[in-house]
Request: fold
Amino acid sequence: MKRVIRWAALALMLMPAMVTAQDFQAGRAAYEAGDYATALREWRPLAEQGDAAAQFNLGVMYANGQGVPQDDAEAMKWYRLAAAQGIAAAQYDLGVMYHSGQGVPQDDAEAVKWYRLAAAQSYAKAQFNLGVMYENGQGVPQDYAEAVKWYRLAAAQGYAKAQFNLGVMYDNGQGVPQDVAEAVKWYRLAAAQGNAAAQFNLGVLYANGQGVPQDHAEAVKWFRLAAAQGVADAQFNLGIMYAKGQGVPQDDAEAVKWYRLAAAQGYAKAQFNLGVMYDNGQGVPQDVAEAVKWYRLAAAQGHADAQFNLGVMYDNGQGVPQDDAEAVKWYRLAAAQGDADAQYNLGVMYAKGQGVPQDFIAAHMWFNISGANGDSQAAAKRDAVAAKLSPADLSTAQRSAKVCMASNYRDCD
Reply:
């Protein structure tokens, strides 16, 4: 199980009325009724007369294309006028526009400037975004302690994304001493507001007993909440819990359901597990062709176990026509990731000349590597092949194994 990375969503907002002029209130009523043309007609004269709230609201309308053609440059113009009068929301939105390069050339340093001005007025979204900039070293030197400072200020105002990021910083010991119990505290606050990433991380911590007593039922609770929001990691983990009967009664069909949801989002581990379920007929009728489909999708993303299993399917002609060359292709890809079983099978293919020309030197090399990586049967195969080699060829095979492993499997031919 893995944890998700932190994330930030930058949003525009409508400034609440800060003046009591009848025209402003008329514009606000029209805006809330969806009558943008009237809102624009009421607010533009006020904005041109220097009313900061009207200037900000015009910026929102241009940014969103409400009553006017969407125009980032025009939005920037009005935000800038409102920001110069100290409107925190306008300062924040200016920061967003500079960060994303909307209406202006992208400029993280300028984004930081505007976030800082809004953050100094306790604007929680700006405090959060300033924390993100310090964490990632965007527009400022990377500084985890400074990121924590700004996340904490926003978190204290109840901003869920900041609470989540603060939890991550405690979880990883970035900018603060590592403290998983403190991470749990902040994840819980964000999760209670529906933050899916925090719900997922809480599930991981309960599943592993980190910062809290291990509690699979509680892990399932949090995974389920995150999964319902479409978090693929949570859907996959929920599938694992049902497959193993951890925190829920064991139920292969329910495991398949959750694997399928994660797999549909392109989650490679779920695609692989779904393939295994079809391969073995667990929770679904056995269907090796369907297993091949899911192995192939995961294998295409570099999933080593899926590459190995796909090789086995081609090797045995299960769900696909038997094809030794295709089996070798997939074994080789998995072997290059250090998969000992794939390395062993490559040794077999070279020893027998299946899918490749027979080559005892290559067979010895792969059996040797597989044994070094823990395959218990590889040593006997290696030694059997060694008996067929001349001393010079044996030396070549041993040297090739050494070079292959030293190159992290990039130089194995």
